[in-house]
Amino acid sequence: MTNIEPIGPATEMPAARPASVRRASHLDIAPSENALARNVEGIAGRAVDTVVGPDGRHRDVARAELSVTVGDDGLIEWSESRPGPALDLVGLRLGPGFRAAVRTSLEDLGDSPLGLLLGDLPGAPSSMRYGIARRRIRQGLVLLPPAGREPHDGPLCAGRRFEHIPGHARAPMLEPPPAPDLGAFDSAGSLGDLPAGYGRRRRLIEVSRTPLGLSLKSFFRDSNFEPDGDSATEVVVHEYELTAETQGEKMEIRSLIATPHVLPHDDCPLAVLGLETLVGASLPVVARQVHRRLQGEESCTHLNDMIRFLAGGADMIRLLPEAA
After folding, report:
1. Domains of the chain by residue range
2. What tens digit of pLDDT does each residue of 195-229 get?
3. DSSP string covering 261-319
4. Which residues contact 139 (CB under 8 A, 6 or more apart)?
5. 156 SS3 class
6. What pTM, to 2 d.p., does this model score?
7. Residue 190's pLDDT band (boundaries 50, 70, 90)?
8. What is the Rg, in whole angstroms, of the alpha carbon atoms belonging to the chain?
9. Whole-angstrom Cα distance, residue 93 to residue 191?
10. Contact status, residue 33 vs residue 136, Cβ threshold 8 Å
11. Are 196 and 220 a contacting pair, CB within 8 Å?
12. Taking Cα atoms as reference points, which of 10, 17, 24 lies closest to residue 313?
């Protein structure tokens, strides 16, 4: 049975399974007061692929880094990436339409660590903006869907806006819990704390073989560093765990289960119910079509992205020796 109620934030990273491949990524988001820049000053992060042998030993096999800064006009003014030729991102705007603008680069990078970072770039600031939203609500502003749309006309966590309407009921935003330290995130160790107002996105994708096909699991956490006196406290805004089993060469989905840990709004739990409709479909096909197949109350931008990136985890199995 699918559990729709959040179980609380994880206290450690999911344990590595022997004979598996893991991809850990994170993006740190620096805030800005500039609404034209969608409140983003810059984003930087890395992704690391690690092979875990049958004996449990870890060996890094790939690493990527990506950084951008956003100018006063809201356009990317500087970017740096590795490995390979530098990505040409200067002049692009983060947000809706970004992935379409870099489609050729995404296709060239495929399901690589740098491809994951680039595809995750436009959505990464959501946790940082959540902190801004909480501060605005404290100032008496109201959280509403975009003009002309009903609350569930799209992914539950996307497209909300603020207006000041005296006496209007405020849409609920749940109190984010403190973020437990997850310990070592990748081979570089733990991620350090960030200044107040910053946001952080973490992902972990792991894949291993089974007698029938593949076993995949994914972990996702969006957090925000809220002001706490002279320092900052990291709080969890959004956290999910996702597991999948496939069979055959077409990677037909045998099971797909999402476990919500922390959710930002009280209507978010409905999103996991839609996953049952994907069982029996091909995982690569679902990953390409998920934003069209799951909509309205049966959708969540973050959960949809987890499924989309899970196909990259299936591709990582090529890094694991056949005998493993």
Report:
1. 20-241
2. 999 999 999 999 999 999 999 999 999 999 998 88
3. EE-SSTTGGGGGGGGGGGTTSBHHHHHHHHHHHS-GGG--HHHHHHHHHHHHHHHGGGG
4. none
5. coil
6. 0.86
7. confident
8. 19
9. 27
10. no
11. no
12. 24
Q: What is the DSSP letter of 81?
A: E
Q: φ and ψ at 166, to 5 degrees?
A: -55, 130
Structural contact between residues 271 and 263, judged by C-beta atoms closer than 8 angstroms: no
| CA–CA separation, 267 and 197 (whole Å) | 25
Which two tokens mark 180?
């437990």
Instruction: Let me know: does 60 contact 47? Beta carbons within 8 Å.
Output: no
Tell me 227's DSSP state. Answer: E
Please answer whether residues 30 and 257 qualify as being in contact, where contact means their C-beta atoms are separated by less than 8 angstroms.
no
Q: What is the spatial distance between Cα 6 and Cα 310, in angstroms, rounded to a whole number?
A: 21
Residue 210, classed as helix, strand or coil, is coil
> What is the identity of the amino acid at 115?
G
Element (H, E) at 108: helix 103-109
Residue 138 token pair: 């404290």
Tell me the HSE value of 66 on the side-chain side, using a 13 A CA sphere: 26
DSSP 48-99: EEEEE-TT--EEEEEEEEEEEEE-TTSBEEEEEEESSSPP--TT-BSSTTHH
N- to C-terminal Cα separation, the chain: 32
Strand partners, 217: 206, 243
